[in-house]
Every structure is written in C-alpha cells, then in structure tokens.
Amino acid sequence: MILQGWADAQKGDATTGIARIRDGMAATEATGNRSNTPFYLTLLAETLAFAGKIEEALAALDDALAEAAVSGVRGRDEEIHRLRGELTGRLPYPDPAKAEDSFRTALAIAREQGTRGYELRAATSLARLWRDQGRRSEARDLLAPVYGSFTEGFDTADLKDARALLAELA
Predict the structure, then answer these.
(1) pTM
(2) Rounded to 5 degrees, what are φ and ψ at 134?
(3) Cys-Cys crosslink for 24: which of 2, 30, 61, 130, Cβ 3.0 to 4.6 Å?
(4) 146 with 106: CB under 8 angstroms?
(5) What's the CA gap between 20 and 18, in Å, rounded?
(6) How far apart are alpha carbons 60 and 49 in whole angstroms?
C-alpha cells in the first residue's frame, strides 16, 4: 500500500498517494512493526513534495531522522538528508547554506557507508547547488570523480543526470 502510494505520486496523483501511504503506515504501525518507518516517512516526504507541500515534507523528514535515531535503523539517513537539501531549496525563502549542509551530510554518510549510488545522488545535488551559485569548477571537481568511479549502469537515471550535469559544467 505504501509503495503503491509512492507510485501513484510518481504517476501524477500525489493526493491519492499521500492517503495510501498514510493508511499503509497506520496499518503497519498497528502491527507494532516500526523497523521501516524512516523509509516510509521518506517516501511520504517525497510524495508530499510532489503535491507542493514542502513544509509538511520537511517535517516528515525530521520525523524520519528522529525515528531512525530511536530505532537505530540508519540505512536511509543519507537519502533523508539529501532530500532535505532538495526541499530546503524549494521553500518560498530558500536557505542555500542549509541546503548545502544537508547535501554535505548526505555525502559524508554515503561515503562512510560505502553506498556509491547514494554518494552519486548527494554529489549531484551538491554540484547542482554550486553550479547555481556560480561555483562551477568546485561542482565539477566534486562530481567528476564520483561519476568516474562507475563502470556500469550508465543507462540509470542517476548516472544520466550526473553525466548531463558534468557536460553542462565542462
């Protein structure tokens, strides 16, 4: 139900998606299982963002981090921080310094955990922010080695996105 709600949002129906995710989370929590709550809250945040509810999405990410800290389930922290950075940039009054801090935290966690896919996502997000700030060479210097460490999967969305950004920064 939760994944279906996220998929609904990906297809353009965020309102239905939000309702399904919340219903699915309530059903899951009723069983006493909270081990995936940080992941589910991250999906909820992404779906809320699709609906333009940025403040609610950021609150869901705060809840995800708090739940991860309590439960010890830390496997999604890098993506939570990266998404927080992306959403901070979409606020009516964006805070680029706060977004950068979130991206740097995501990057550090991904590197510590050795999750190269999440490292690429975080590096791409931070490089995009730096590009927008006119820090093009820093952006390229950050992203190029991360992208260059991949030897396959170049047809995936994340690698295509990184390649396009690198081409723009060249």
Answers:
(1) 0.91
(2) 85, 10
(3) 2
(4) no
(5) 6
(6) 10
Amino acid at 97: A
pLDDT digits (tens, 9 = 90+) for 38-81: 999 999 999 999 999 999 999 999 999 999 888 877 778 999 99
Give the whole-angstrom CA distance, residue 43 versus residue 28.
14
Task: Give the type of residue at 130.
Answer: W
Residue 53: DSSP 8-state: -
Amino acid type, 169: L
Q: DSSP labels for 95-122?
A: -HHHHHHHHHHHHHHHHHHT-HHHHHHH
Structure tokens at 4: 């279906």
Say if residue 51 is exposed, middle or buried (CB neighbours under 10 Å; 0-12, 13-18, 19+): middle
How many whole angstroms separate alpha carbon 63 and alpha carbon 84? 12
